[in-house]
């Protein structure tokens, strides 16, 4: 992306890139967003996490001016969405859930089309297109029709097209859905690169791992409401499930350890014990002390903190979890 850091002529960024208060949207009888509040600090990555049909795309479409909200005090890039949607449009880039890439023309032609839409001069357009194609590893494919691209390449081209206007706030609606693991990791690297340039990223995802990897803050959308909001760590602390697991090679040792420790759950087949724990140093030490005084040595000790999957399942209920999210359960 053409370098554009604060101080080179761009207006000073406001501390809050996106804010929503009481955002509501219904389709007929169906309440999709039931008064949600969001605040995304400038330069951070925010993940809106939710199962299929939760309202993620609806939220993105509203905040990127594509559709209007029924109610809510909404600001993007310091501009009031209702009063000045044009200013919001100038500040943002959107990569939709479904590709904006035209398959009939080449990757380069797609890029030049975007440059035209942004009223760049011919020369500036060519320079920007070349720079972005290079950055997104699409130079070799640039002269081929986009319909011949792999899913990952199409996504990269889509994002490259979004960046033509050098937006400071980017909405990415499910940027990696349907990508293979390598392309997904590749996309994560690209998103991290944007963030290190100071771009604010609002992304939606069904993948807990993705939110965990990328986002500074995560909101879980369920049933039209924000079921929980915080850092990945904060969300993980919301729910129980942390434990320390000891594994033994000798059933006699496993039995003695179970006797020495209180409140264990035994798995006799795996010769393992699990002890509920917050994983703190104090708890760990107390377990080790008790094992030491009983003269017991475990073959393996692991600390398990609940992960976002646990949070997601607890908050959205098993019936609501899409198959794709189930597949990501580690
Ligand atoms: N244009 C529309 N007309 C009627 N219902 C819609 C429309 N767009 C979305 N919906 C409904 O709103 C709900 C949320 O959709 P969406 O925002 O696409 O969810 P997500 O992106 O989280 O999968 C779904 O039940 C969907 O069927
Ligand atoms: Mg969607």
Mind explaining what this structure looks like?
Helix content is 36%, strand content 25%. A 6-stranded mixed beta sheet has the order 6-7-8-3-9-10, sandwiched between helices. A hairpin with a 2-residue loop joins strand 1 (16-27) and strand 2. The protein has 330 residues and is of the alpha/beta class. It has helices at 56-63, 85-91, 107-117, 122-135, 151-162, 181-196, 208-214, 232-238, 251-260, 281-293, 308-316, 323-327, and strands at residues 16-27, 30-41, 45-49, 71-76, 79-80, 92-95, 169-173, 200-205, 217-222, 225-230, 243-247, 265-267, 272-276, 300-304. It is built from 12 helices and 14 strands. It has 2 domains: 16-237, P-loop containing nucleotide triphosphate hydrolases (Rossmann fold, 3-Layer(aba) Sandwich); 240-304, Alpha-Beta Plaits (2-Layer Sandwich), CATH 3.30.70.100. The protein is elongated. Residues 56-57, 97, 173-174 line the site of magnesium ion (MG). It is found in: Cell membrane. Keywords: Antibiotic resistance, ATP-binding, Cell membrane, Membrane, Nucleotide-binding, Translocase, Transport.
Uncertain residue ranges: 1-9, 319-330
Mean pLDDT: 87
Question: What is the CATH fold-level name of the largest domain?
Answer: Rossmann fold
The ligands found in this model are: adenosine-5'-diphosphate, magnesium ion
Number of helices in the DSSP assignment: 12
Give the CATH class of the largest domain.
Alpha Beta
Helical residue percent band:
25-40%
- Tell me about the largest β-sheet: 6 strands, mixed
Q: How much strand?
A: 15-25%
CATH architecture label of the largest domain: 3-Layer(aba) Sandwich
Shape assignment = elongated
- The strand line-up of the biggest sheet is 6-7-8-3-9-10
CATH superfamily of the largest domain: P-loop containing nucleotide triphosphate hydrolases
């Amino acid at each position: 992306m053409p370098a554009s850091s604060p101080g080179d002529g761009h207006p000073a960024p406001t501390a809050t890139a996106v804010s929503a208060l009481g955002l509501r949207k219904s389709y007929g009888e169906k309440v999709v967003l039931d008064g949600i509040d969001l605040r995304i600090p400038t330069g951070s990555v925010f993940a809106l996490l939710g199962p299929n049909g939760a309202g993620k795309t609806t939220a993105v479409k509203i905040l990127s001016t594509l559709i209007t909200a029924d109610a809510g005090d909404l600001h993007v890039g310091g501009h009031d969405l209702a009063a000045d949607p044009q200013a919001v449009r100038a500040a943002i880039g959107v990569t939709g859930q479904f590709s904006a890439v035209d398959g009939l023309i080449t990757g380069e032609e797609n890029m030049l089309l975007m440059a035209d839409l942004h009223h760049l001069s011919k020369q500036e357009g060519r320079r920007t297109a070349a720079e972005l194609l290079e950055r997104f590893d699409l130079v070799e494919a640039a002269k081929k029709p986009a319909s011949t691209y792999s899913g990952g390449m199409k996504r990269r081209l889509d994002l490259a097209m979004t960046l033509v206007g050098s937006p400071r706030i980017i909405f990415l609606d499910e940027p990696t859905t349907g990508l293979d693991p390598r392309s997904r990791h590749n996309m994560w690297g690209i998103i991290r690169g944007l963030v290190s340039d100071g771009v604010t990223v609002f992304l939606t995802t069904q993948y807990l791992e993705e939110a965990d990897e990328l986002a500074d803050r995560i909101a879980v959308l369920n049933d039209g409401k924000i079921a929980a909001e915080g850092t990945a760590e904060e969300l993980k602390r919301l729910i129980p499930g942390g434990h320390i697991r000891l594994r033994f090679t000798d059933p006699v040792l496993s039995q003695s350890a179970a006797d020495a420790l209180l409140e264990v759950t035994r798995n006799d087949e795996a010769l393992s014990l699990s002890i509920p724990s917050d994983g703190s140093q104090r708890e760990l030490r107390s377990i080790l002390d008790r094992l030491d005084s009983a003269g017991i040595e475990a073959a393996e000790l692991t600390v398990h903190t609940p992960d976002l999957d646990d949070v997601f399942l607890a908050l959205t209920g098993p019936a609501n979890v899409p198959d794709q999210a189930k597949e990501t359960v580690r």
